[in-house]
Input
Amino acid sequence: MFKYQHGFCIIRCQPFHIGHDRLIKKMMEECAYGTVLIGSAQESGTEKNPLPYFTRKKMVQNVWRKSDAYERLRIVGVKDVNNVPWNVHVLETIKKEQPDKPAPDVIYVGDEREYLFFKNDVTNVEICSRTTQDFPFLSGNMVRDMIALKDIRYKEFVHPENIELIEKSFYEGEKN
Output
């Protein structure tokens, strides 16, 4: 029996790191169904969003496809919009992609402020810090900076299944 019917979280995965995975793991332990929305799906090739959506989705799949929970998990891109309120856009995206699933009854966030857009639309919020005692300074910016600087310590913050994909995405085409 699950605590919730349908949970969701919004992450950019630039790149997918262990903090993101911690959030998804909690969601899938507590929800009958889970939706991972990969934000800024239309963005790639920029400093803040270097990786394209399909690469980011593949990183999540690489880690979760071996899990028993994978069949209950949906990974969906969500584009940034300016003409519709963010909460409406996100919930419409979930409904469009999963019309057979119940509306989300919980959102999983790393910080309480991320919930504010949804406080009138989603009954529950679960806060799951992406950092731990072992990794107190974990952020996508930090991991991206380490990758850009070719600092191999970035490998401590991503799953081994994704190292080859990350290095191909960030380093392919560079001259030695």
Remarks:
- The two ends are 54 Å apart (CA to CA).
- The chain has a mean pLDDT of 93.
- The CA atoms of residues 13 and 95 lie 22 Å apart.
